[in-house]
Amino acid sequence: MAEADNYEDTVKGKKEVDFAQFEDTKSGLLGRIQHALHVNPALVPLIILVFAIALFGLLLGQRFFSAGTLTLILQQVQIVGVLAAAQTLIILTAGIDLSVGAIAVLSSVIMGQMTFRYGVPAEISILIGFAFGAGIGAVSGFLVSRIKIPPFIVTLGIWQVVLAANYLFANNQTIRSSDLRAEAPALLFLGNRVEIGGANFTFGVILMILIFIALGYALRSTAWGRHVYAVGDDPEAAQLAGVNVKRTLMSVYMLTGLICAVAGWVMIGRFSSVSPSASTGVIGNIQSITAVVIGGLSLFGGRGSIYGALFGAMIVGVFELGLRMAGADPQWTFMLIGMLIIGAVGLDQWIRKVSA
Amino acid sequence: MDQKGISVMEPILSGKNLVKRYGKVTALDHCDFELYPGEILAVIGDNGAGKSSLIKALSGATIPDSGEVYLEGKQVNFRSPIDARGAGIETVYQTLAMSPALSIADNMFMGRELKKPGVMGSVFGQLDKKRMQDFARDKLSELGLMTIQNINQAVETLSGGQRQGVAVARAAAFGSKVIILDEPTAALGVKESRKVLELILDVRSRGIPIILISHNMPHVFEVADRIHVHRLGKRLCVIDPKDYTMSDAVAFMTGAKEAPVDA
Hints:
The complex is a heterodimer of chains A (356) and B (263). With 356 residues, chain A is mainly α.
């Protein structure tokens, strides 16, 4: 027995402090690139965005590379951009939200119909729309966090329910631009623009950027943000470490619903009309997921930067407008976007290999 | 001799008549438990003996069907690990409960983040990253884990031993009354295990009692002051490692040998 008991003495006696030292085994250029991406996940989409703008600038010259065109891209991506901000929150918790576009359309319809059918002041209608968005988010959040239904299924259902409710509530009516201008200018507020040089910034674009800055701050510098990442990374570990997982999920889904309602307001400003059949209701979810994935956020949750989603949305916008101006068949856009998605996820797998 | 000394002392954490059933399986069968101040109590038992259930009942991870838990003589009812933590009981789970993609500092303060003083903290909820990083660095170097250079590196870039070290440091930093360690050396190499055992002794020398769940008899016999042998959902006996051999302990926990009556 005695002999067997002492088998660890060799290490016991030696005072070794550096057995657990950090050697940088990942040497070489590739290793350093991987490390940089691991620390700064929004770097790749930013580089792709800059390259794409430079490429189309070279091909199309002044026509593309002007303040007017570049800010036009921002205007074209503002709705998807806001939806992508909302989608980012859900994807960070390892979920997915198929209902973002539908919530946006229903919220815009509620804002419009409250004003025109029920005579509520437009400012109050907007708040009612926000409340509805947050409310739908709360339902999804409850189903995901308490009843433990997978987010994909919950939001697949909510998407259909909300979209149908939207058509039923709106009676398939569209509120026209002239009526909005005459009676409810507040609904069109986000369509206003400021011009700086040749650049056109609509209030909607500015709001989108403010949303990203606010969420970027909240995710990086507040306890809530750290909890969102922890819940997406490993919910059980987060729970044991003292994070209230259910409450975090609930807050994420409610905030997402609210931001979707904001996207509804942005839609009214962008289209100058309120229509229940806006395409956002059907494809807004896929568009926002595309932006988020191209933006380098991991669908497995807990990884990525929200700015990546903004860059992702802008990459799609640059390709769409650039290829259209170059006279290419629009199908080329979809083909390129498809390749980007697969490339982005492949890159995510490589970055995450660092943990192996 | 210290058997007498201990019996006069009041246990800091104790369980009485704890029962926990999962369907038809009785994981805890009227189990008693006592942890005394300043000691390392090892809990050993065969797989399925109910060690984990006992620990979970003490740390708030499960709620026992019946029975009481006392902390410093007062009855406590933990509904969650957060409750137990609030009362000063820190648990290092076998899974470590860390978020791999987040930094060491983030992980140490998960669920109890420090906010900046003033408006930035109270209104905007801004975290005081500097203070958290300094604290984390201090705690790690206090326990001799100074070789972790960058407090902001992701936990997933650490080795198994380093992760365990961070988890123990987290528990030692915040656990004011009791620290529970669940299989701290199970996933580690020989050298890393040594370091963790040194950490455990170091924590005890600060006066914090430790519950150590382990399968590794040499480790248990090396550091434990008393050994709680768990069998068939209850405490079979408590032995002093100086009076028995490892073979005796294994024989007790597997039922190959009758338990000593005096314990």
